[in-house]
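Still learning. Any example?
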Amino acid sequence: MVKLDNKIGVIVDSFRLPIREGLLKAKEVGAQGVQMYAVSGELDPDNLNAEQRAELKAYILGLGLEISALCGDLGGHGFQDKAENARKIKKSKEILQLAKDLGTSIVTTHIGIIPEDENDPIYQTMLEACEELGQYATSLDAYFAIETGPETSKTLKGFLDKLSTNGVSVNFDPANMVMVTKDDPVAGVKLLKKYIVHTHVKDGIQLQPTNPKDVYGYLGYDSGTSHDKIEEMVENGEFFRELPLGHGDVNFELYFSALQEIGYNGYLTIEREVRSNPEKDIKEAVQFIEKFK
């Protein structure tokens, strides 16, 4: 059996509590680190001046926690829409700076589905946005980490290989793969090994084949997606369900072994997107991971 020494994180927002109450819960369930959404509300970069950032950082450290990453997912079509990108790139840069101010170097996000056809104009639009963000992240010694799931690992790697820096990297989520594209998480880890800077630990099953565009949205296909819409789909959707760790189709023994094999020593951050009783599930998820330690 694989023996892990990775730290365990939790997404504070999964508790559905105000930030500081969520941080206390994270400590209570046994996490060592936390990830938090930083796109609106309390953690919107516009709402935190330098003094407030320093105070929040000190509060988190005072709890004996560290920040594994911030989440900077701006929804909609990611970076597929050229007309939206100037605003979204500016906001993403502000979130990257906030991350550094709070003591982490990672911001995770969804960038929209990467087209398989590299000649698709949307592909080039996304590439240009990620090139600018990658260079900016590298200038801060930080990473803008794309979450796996909307496309296959092969398509994602081909896209990342075209960028001039590794400032845009990967937040690896195995459940998104088994729920949406049916891509193999273990093969995905090995393929994307040089790009993985953060992971989500989540489980799920696919109920019937689905078009990723119906989950994540696509420019010209629909009006885009939101975190709330995805939460509804993972809990009650007809295509897939997110399940407590060990109850879905992610083989965690093999998945954790693959992460160990590539030398990944970062956070295993628990994400639970369902609305009912997340605290119980998160606590059990921490215990599930600890069985591998």
Summary: The longest strand covers residues 66-71. The radius of gyration is 18 Å. The chain has a mean pLDDT of 94. DSSP finds eleven helices and ten strands in the chain.
